[in-house]
Amino acid sequence: MSRAKCLILGGGPAGYTAAIYASRAGLAPVLYEGMEPGGQLTTTTVVENFPGFPGGIDALTLMDGMRKQAASFGADIRRGVATAVDLSERPFKVIIDGKETVEAETLIIATGATAKYLGLPSEAKFRGLGVSACATCDGFFYRGKDVAVVGGGDTACEEALYLAGLCRKVYMIVRRDVFRASKAMQEKVFAAPNIEILWKCQTREILGDDSGVTGARLVRGEDEVFDIAVDGFFLAIGHHPNSELFAPWIETDDKGYIVTSDKTQETAVPGVFAAGDVQDPLYRQAITAAASGCRAARDAERFLVENS
Ligand code: NDP
Question: What residues are annotated to the active site?
Answer without folding.
Answer: 134, 137-138
